[in-house]
């Protein structure tokens, strides 16, 4: 998320991958007590919904990075972030028609996280931005020097992508095993260094594009959203995802048992990456950048990330920045996140 190649995460196909089970989202889960512990040893630490979710984050106020044209603003005072009448949290983009920079949101958690805490994050997304010009992500970044204190991208894509990108970035000495990828493809071939997570060598490495074309964007929105999970412990990093109506039953009870979920989409073991050394004081970030070199790099590429038609053809604009800054009325619901909740467990 901090930096990314113009052509990273272009995936043209692949079979769907998701877990099966309950037809209910976390938002419709059964009531449970905070002090209950799952058979895998996970106990609820934070249940973030509605205003409680919003208050767990600080709003960054600055121009966006990565050559984007977003102007990050306070979500509350701008009215771009609020709890809907149904209890879901909406995170939008400003719709002023013609602007120098377009107001959007970057939220960073007011707590930091470390592998020694043995953490499980479950992010329940009802809707994510999906339209030309957007670069939405849910990710973690270390509080110190990048990339030495680490970055983990749980949800990321651009424009009308339908395939999610998951990535891990670090300093020197962190590697992943290609055999620990399931239902996804490396963005950089292993033979070209794609399993070396050192972002100073190749900032596209240790990134995968999920095969399923309902793992991101409008395709995910159309099937009631998706849930994304990060397990961060001293044993390593694991990431899963599933569409909301096909998640494991134990999650709905607030008693997650990852040992029963099947193979993670992406896994990095402590034997090839000491997480305590490479991931320090991570902040959870939710943001919607606009334009930027990832978005721009695939602006004229058909079928990038699973989208059927490139944004140059869809919009009639030759570049992302011009479109974003002049077409404010387009950035309505299609540019908004709607979150059911974020649930954090420890053991």
UniProtKB/TrEMBL annotation:
<keyword id="KW-0378">Hydrolase</keyword>
<protein>
    <submittedName>
        <fullName>Glycoside hydrolase family 16 protein</fullName>
    </submittedName>
</protein>
<feature type="signal peptide">
    <location>
        <begin position="1"/>
        <end position="18"/>
    </location>
</feature>
<keyword id="KW-0732">Signal</keyword>
<dbReference type="InterPro" id="IPR000757">
    <property type="entry name" value="Beta-glucanase-like"/>
</dbReference>
<dbReference type="Pfam" id="PF26113">
    <property type="entry name" value="GH16_XgeA"/>
</dbReference>
<dbReference type="GO" id="GO:0009251">
    <property type="term" value="P:glucan catabolic process"/>
</dbReference>
<dbReference type="InterPro" id="IPR013320">
    <property type="entry name" value="ConA-like_dom_sf"/>
</dbReference>
<feature type="domain" description="GH16">
    <location>
        <begin position="24"/>
        <end position="279"/>
    </location>
</feature>
<dbReference type="InterPro" id="IPR050546">
    <property type="entry name" value="Glycosyl_Hydrlase_16"/>
</dbReference>
<dbReference type="GO" id="GO:0004553">
    <property type="term" value="F:hydrolase activity, hydrolyzing O-glycosyl compounds"/>
</dbReference>
């Amino acid at each position: 998320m901090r930096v990314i190649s113009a052509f990273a995460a272009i995936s043209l196909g692949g079979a769907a991958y998701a877990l099966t089970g309950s037809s209910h989202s976390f938002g419709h889960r059964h009531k449970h007590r905070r002090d209950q512990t799952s058979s895998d040893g996970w106990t609820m630490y934070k249940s973030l919904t509605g205003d409680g979710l919003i208050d767990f984050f600080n709003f960054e106020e600055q121009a966006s990075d990565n050559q984007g044209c977003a102007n990050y603003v306070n979500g509350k005072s701008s009215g771009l972030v609020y709890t809907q009448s149904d209890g879901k949290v909406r995170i939008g983009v400003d719709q002023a028609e013609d602007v120098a920079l377009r107001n959007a949101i970057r939220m960073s958690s007011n707590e930091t996280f470390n592998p020694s805490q043995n953490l499980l994050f479950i992010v329940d997304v009802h809707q994510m931005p999906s339209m030309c010009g957007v670069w939405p992500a849910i990710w973690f970044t270390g509080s110190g020097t990048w990339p030495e204190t680490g970055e983990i991208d749980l949800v990321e894509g651009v424009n009308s992508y339908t395939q999610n990108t998951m990535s891990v970035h670090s300093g020197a000495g962190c590697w992943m095993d290609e055999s620990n990828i399931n239902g996804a493809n490396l963005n950089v071939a292993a033979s070209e260094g794609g399993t070396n997570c050192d972002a100073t060598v190749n900032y596209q490495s240790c990134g995968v594009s999920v095969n399923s074309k309902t793992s991101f964007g409008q395709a995910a929105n159309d099937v009631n959203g998706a849930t994304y999970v990060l397990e961060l412990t001293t044993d390593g990093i694991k990431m899963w995802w599933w569409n909301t109506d096909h998640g494991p039953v134990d999650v709905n009870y607030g008693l997650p048992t990852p040992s029963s979920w099947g193979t993670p989409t992406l896994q990095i073991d402590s034997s090839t990456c000491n997480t305590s050394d490479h991931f320090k004081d991570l902040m959870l970030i939710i943001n919607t950048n606009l334009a930027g070199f990832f978005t721009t790099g695939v602006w004229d590429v058909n079928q990038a990330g699973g989208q059927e038609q490139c944004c140059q053809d869809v919009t009639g604009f030759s570049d992302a920045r011009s479109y974003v800054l002049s077409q404010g009325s387009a950035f309505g619901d299609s540019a908004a996140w709607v979150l059911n909740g974020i649930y954090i467990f420890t053991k």
